[in-house]
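Before surveying the methods themselves, let us examine one representative protein, written as a sequence plus integers encoding its fold.
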Amino acid sequence: MNIVAITACTAGIAHTYIVAEKLQTAAEELGHNCKVETQGSAGIENELTAEDIEKADVVIYAHDIAIRGTNRFANKKVVDVPIGVAMKQPKSLITTIEKKLAAK
């Protein structure tokens, strides 16, 4: 599965980047490709390209503040969760997404 994600926390510092790393690691451990864009205090980093988005099977928003540029994902399956969910249970989140996509 190809996953793209955006992480953004209230302060835009620690949790934004911790969750990005956790999602990336969990996806890879489960055999998936994952690219994560962060929207933190330093602005947008690792911005997703049109090609990244086109290849994506699912988009994960892990955030506590508004995500910028959501119009890029208009025709994609989007999973929207609080940043704490992705931080505490990234593998469970991805496994749940796998099951829901497989059921369709």
